Amino acid sequence: MGMLSFLNALNFYTFANLEVGEHFYWQLGNLKIHGQVFLTSWFVIAILVVASLVATRNIQRVPSGIQNLMEYALEFIRDLTKNQIGEKEYRPWVPFIGTLFLFIFVSNWSGALVPWRLIKLPAGELAAPTNDINTTVALAMLTSLAYFYAGFSKRGWGYFKKYIEPTPILLPIAILEDFTKPLSLSFRLFGNILADELVVAVLVLLVPLFVPLPVMALGLFTSAIQALVFATLAAAYIHEAMEGHGEEEHGEH
C-alpha cells in the first residue's frame, strides 16, 4: 500500500510534459521545422555574439574581465586545434573548431543552468539545443563536410585513393566509415546530454533539496567534457583527411 500511495502521489507531479514525438513546429510552406530547437539555438548564438562584442569593444593591453575570459578561450581552442592538426596547417581551422566547441559548450551548459521548462509552449518543451538529435546530427554532417573539404583541398583527387587502397573491395566499408565516425559523435553527445537532464529532473522530483546539486555540478563537468571530445575528434578527423600529403610531395621530389 505504501508503494501504491507513492506511485499515486507521483501522478500529481511531472518533471517534463514532453511526450515522445511531441515538438513545437513551425510551418514554412510545405516545410515543418522544430521551432523549439531554433529558439534555444538562437539563444546560445546570441550569448556568444554578445560575449564577443563586449570582449572586443574596448580591448586593453592587459586583459581583464570578459576580455580575459574570451582570450583564454581562444588560446585554449588554438592549442587544441594545433595539437590535433599540426603546427603548419592548424590556423585556417581554428574558427571552425572553435565554433563547434563554443556552441556545444554553451548549449550543454544552458540545459543545466537555464530553467527552460518554466517557459510553456503550445506543444513540446524547451531544452538545450544538443538535447535534440537533429542538432547533434547537423553538427556531425558539418564535421563530415569539413574533413571531406580538408582532404580534397589538401591532396586533390589523390584524396580519393584511400577508398580503393589497398583493394577496391573495401570501398563500401571506407565510405561507411567516413559517415559513421561523426555520427557516432552525434549520438554520444545527444545521449549524454539527454541522460544528464533526465537524471537531474528525476532527482529534483524525488529529492528536491540538496541531492540534485552534486549531480548538477557533475553534469556541468561532463557537459564541458562532451564539448571537448566533439571538438577534439572533429579536429583529429580533419587531420586524418589531410595526412599523407607531405609524404606524397616528398616522394615526388
UniProtKB/TrEMBL annotation:
GO terms for cellular component: plasma membrane-derived thylakoid membrane; proton-transporting ATP synthase complex. One of its GO terms (molecular function) is proton-transporting ATP synthase activity, rotational mechanism. It is a multi-pass membrane protein. This is ATP synthase subunit a. Pfam families: ATP-synt_A (PF00119). It comes from Richelia intracellularis HH01. Its main location: membrane. PANTHER family: ATP SYNTHASE SUBUNIT A, CHLOROPLASTIC (PTHR42823:SF3).
